[in-house]
Design goal:
Structural class: mainly beta
Distance between the termini: 101 Å
Number of helices: 2
Largest sheet: 5 strands, antiparallel
Shape: elongated
């Protein structure tokens, strides 16, 4: 079963066992809160058990446990007006509360079977097996292939030589200008 609940001006689709981040709520971590504004209740099987409120479902409550108080991502607010040199830069981080949905109640009774939440407080004994990492022995072909290629490329007999005759930019001889022609071109 799931419910659509409204808190902090936003709507969330929740089911027992979910953890959501909502606008800051009063309460310390570990406290149990009741979210009373339930807009819709729906079962897993389809439309037969769906209850839509107007605006809220009467007698429906979502029970949640406060996990922690946190802050959201930083948002940069930059106000700018062109041509008048007006610039204001501020930042904002929203105050959030993480809550874990424990139950959905309809007329005081639990509407869904309890969700199985794994218990992380008990230590599980695990047998440690030794891990052996095998090193790959180099083969003769792979160890000799690379140095041969490097030696072939660096031998001076096979090094490429530049050919001046095929140079695409022709060399122009430098000319000297006498003082008389530079001042009187005519």
């Amino acid at each position: 079963m799931y419910a659509i609940v409204e808190t902090g001006g936003k709507q969330y689709r929740v089911k027992p066992g979910d953890t959501i981040a909502v606008e800051r709520l009063s309460g310390e971590p570990g406290d149990v809160l009741d979210l009373g504004r339930v807009l819709l209740l729906a079962g897993n099987g389809g439309g037969a058990s769906t209850r839509v409120g107007s605006p809220g479902v009467e007698g429906a409550v979502v029970r949640a446990e406060v996990v922690e108080h946190a802050r959201g991502e930083k948002i940069i607010v930059f106000r700018y007006k062109s041509k008048v040199r007006y610039r204001r830069k501020t930042g904002h981080r929203q105050a959030l509360t993480r809550v874990r949905i424990t139950d959905i109640l309809v007329d005081g009774a639990s509407a869904s079977p309890p969700a199985e939440v794994p218990d992380t407080t008990q230590a599980v004994a695990v047998e440690e097996t030794p891990v052996v990492v095998a090193e790959k022995a180099p083969t003769e072909a792979s160890s000799t292939a690379l140095p041969d290629v490097v030696e072939e490329a660096t031998t001076p007999a096979e090094a490429p030589t530049s050919v001046v005759a095929d140079d695409p930019i022709p060399q122009v001889p430098e000319t000297t200008v006498s003082d008389d022609t530079a001042q009187n071109p005519a």
